């Protein structure tokens, strides 16, 4: 504050950095604020009352909107009835198909369960026989152990060495062998089933194919597999067939007596699937074994030794002959005249015959060779049934 200024006694002096205090509010402003609060309260009460009136239905309920009736023509009704009949017919057809499928599945499982039951019963019988046999062997072992003990006076003495009588151990073994023979004979006399029924690639089926490998009879055939690929589908049953392109692998066995190569099928391949099978490869006419060319070393030896024999015979014929009297037989005979020319001819004939014998002996030591060309048509005969369930489970058929 400057000097000379007067300070109002109602207020404190103002210093630097302090705000000026507010003066007292007037009564008119307080009245306006109170009136505004009353108006806001009345509006809130009025709003709550209106909401309560509509919420509790004091002014009456609003009638619900009635749905508009849909009008349907007679043609549309007929069409809907026809569709309904078709749906009911389709439902009945599907139910019949489901019942047929259930019957077929039950029949198939029944057919598969019967052989399994028979096998289980056979295994149980075999197990009983094994238990009886094991018990018998235990009894024999016990008897043998008792026989090894020192002989007691009451036991019969063993026969003397060199006697024809059998010892007690041999007698027990003989009785056991007789019992086993009787059991085998009883098993062999059991009646076999008149027929069997099973699905799959049946025994004796013929599958057309072609040979993909050339076959030559040699010692390397022991580690060699012949590959045969089917050329057409082989129907197993309606709707299921063994696809073309299936490969069969077999071991090669040369037979020089029949002059053919036999292929025994051991495996079947389709994609990534490989399974053991059994069969044999036939030629196009259905004969077992394959052959395209047969090389006989003896025939070659005969043609190779023919010329030396002819030349040796010509050398013998070219010798000069002389007559002499054979006193032993009292007759005139001929013999080569002793001369330089005859000696040379005789030596040449002997050398030619020796060469012919050497060639024949060399060829006789060789083995015949059987050759089968590739890509020739063949047939695969199945010698052991391939079950259908295995083919379906592996994905070979039924895809």
Using brief descriptors, characterize the structure shown.
399 residues; alpha+beta; Lipocalin; six-stranded antiparallel β-barrel; three-stranded antiparallel β-sheet; 6 helices; 15 strands; 45% helix; disordered N terminus
Description:
It is a single chain. The protein is of the alpha+beta class. Among the domains are: 62 residues; 116 residues, Type IV secretion system, VirB10/TraB/TrbI (Lipocalin); 71 residues, no CATH class. The chain is built from 6 helices and 15 strands. The strands form 5 sheets. A 6-stranded antiparallel β-barrel has the order 2-4-7-8-9-14. Strand 5 and strand 6 form a beta hairpin. Helix 2 packs antiparallel against helix 3 and helix 4 packs antiparallel against helix 5. The radius of gyration is 57 Å and the shape is elongated. The N terminus is likely disordered.
Structure at a glance:
It is built from 6 helices and 15 strands. With 399 residues, the protein is of the alpha+beta class.
Taking the alpha carbons of the first and last residues, their distance comes to: 111 Å
Q: Structural class of the secondary elements?
A: alpha+beta
How many individual helices? 6
Oligomer: single chain
What would CATH call the architecture of the domain at 200-292 and 372-394? Beta Barrel
Percent in helix: 40-55%
Task: Give the overall form.
Answer: elongated
Order of helices and strands: HHHEEEEEEEEEEHEEHEEEH
Average pLDDT works out at 77
Got a strand count? Answer: 15
Q: What is the CATH class name of the domain at 200-292 and 372-394?
A: Mainly Beta
Report strand order across the widest sheet: 2-4-7-8-9-14
The CATH homologous superfamily of the domain at 200-292 and 372-394 corresponds to Type IV secretion system, VirB10/TraB/TrbI
Question: Any idea of the CATH topology of the domain at 200-292 and 372-394?
Answer: Lipocalin
Residues in β-strands, percent: 15-25%
Low-confidence stretches: 1-9
The biggest sheet, with number of strands, parallel, antiparallel or mixed sense and barrel status, is: 6 strands, antiparallel, barrel
| Rounded Rg | 57 Å
């Amino acid at each position: 504050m400057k000097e000379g200024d007067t300070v109002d006694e109602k207020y404190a002096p103002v210093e630097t950095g302090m705000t000026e205090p507010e003066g007292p509010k007037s009564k008119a402003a307080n009245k306006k604020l109170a009136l505004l609060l009353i108006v806001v309260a009345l509006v809130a009460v009025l709003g709550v009352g209106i909401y309560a009136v509509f919420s509790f239905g004091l002014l009456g309920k609003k009638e619900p909107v009635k749905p508009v009736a849909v009008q349907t023509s007679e043609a549309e009704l007929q069409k809907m009835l026809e569709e309904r009949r078709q749906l009911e017919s389709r439902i009945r057809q599907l139910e019949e198909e489901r019942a047929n499928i259930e019957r077929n599945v039950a029949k198939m499982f029944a057919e598969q369960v019967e052989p399994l039951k028979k096998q289980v019963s056979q295994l149980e019988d075999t197990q009983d026989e094994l238990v009886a046999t094991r018990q018998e062997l235990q009894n024999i072992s016990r008897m043998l152990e008792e026989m090894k003990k020192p002989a007691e006076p009451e036991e019969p003495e063993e026969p003397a060495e060199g006697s024809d009588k059998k010892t007690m151990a041999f007698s027990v073994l003989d009785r056991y062998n007789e019992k086993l023979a009787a059991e085998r004979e009883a098993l062999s006399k059991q009646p076999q089933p008149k027929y069997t029924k099973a699905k799959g690639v049946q025994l004796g089926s013929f599958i057309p194919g072609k040979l993909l490998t050339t076959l030559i009879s040699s010692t390397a055939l022991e580690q060699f597999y012949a590959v045969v690929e089917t050329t057409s589908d082989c129907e197993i049953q309606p709707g299921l067939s063994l696809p073309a392109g299936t490969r069969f692998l077999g071991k090669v066995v040369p037979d020089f007596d029949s002059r053919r190569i036999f292929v025994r099928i051991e495996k079947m391949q389709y994609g990534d699937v490989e399974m053991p099978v059994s069969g044999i490869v036939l030629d196009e006419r259905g004969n077992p074994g394959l052959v395209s060319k047969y090389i006989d070393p003896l025939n070659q030896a005969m043609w190779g030794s023919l010329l030396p024999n002819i030349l040796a015979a010509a050398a013998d014929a070219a010798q000069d002959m002389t007559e002499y009297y054979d006193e032993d037989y009292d007759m005139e005979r001929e013999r080569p005249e002793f001369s330089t020319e005859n000696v040379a001819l005789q030596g040449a004939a002997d050398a030619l015959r020796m060469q012919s014998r050497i060639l024949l002996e060399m060829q006789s030591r060789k083995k015949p060779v059987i050759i089968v060309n590739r890509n020739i048509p063949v047939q695969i005969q199945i010698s052991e049934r391939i079950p259908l369930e295995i083919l379906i489970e592996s994905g070979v058929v039924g895809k």
